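Could you join me in thinking about how sequence relates to backbone shape in a protein? Label the sequence line and the structure token line clearly, so we can match residues to local backbone shapes. Once you have written the record down, we can walk along the chain together.
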Amino acid sequence: MLYCHQYPKREKEGEAIMVRAAKSKIGKKEKNDRLYKAILTLETEEECYNFFQDLCTVSELRSMEQRYEVATLLNDGMIYNDILERTGASSATISRVNRSLIYGSGGYESVLEKMKEQVSSY
């Protein structure tokens, strides 16, 4: 049976360093900056739905939603087999998301922490 590994907590780095590191993995094309800045202008959940429905195919959206759900479940300590059964994600997808949690740029960690803070403030 495969088990997930809790990813290590990262120490907070300067925002400029984190942005540079993220950009270096994606590429430094101006069009990339424009997309991410455009996403930051979205103010409501409805605006997000509308923008991403226009930007992505249904399949792309479902894939991103599934990866986020897998990240949430891994972060909560669920084992691979239970995640596979619950989400339908392949073991390769679960493994890839787990690697991102452990060795990635900290994007999942940042969002998951913020989402937990939002839930606990309700």
Q: What stands out?
A: Helices lie at 15-26, 30-40, 45-55, 58-75, 80-87, 91-103, 107-120.
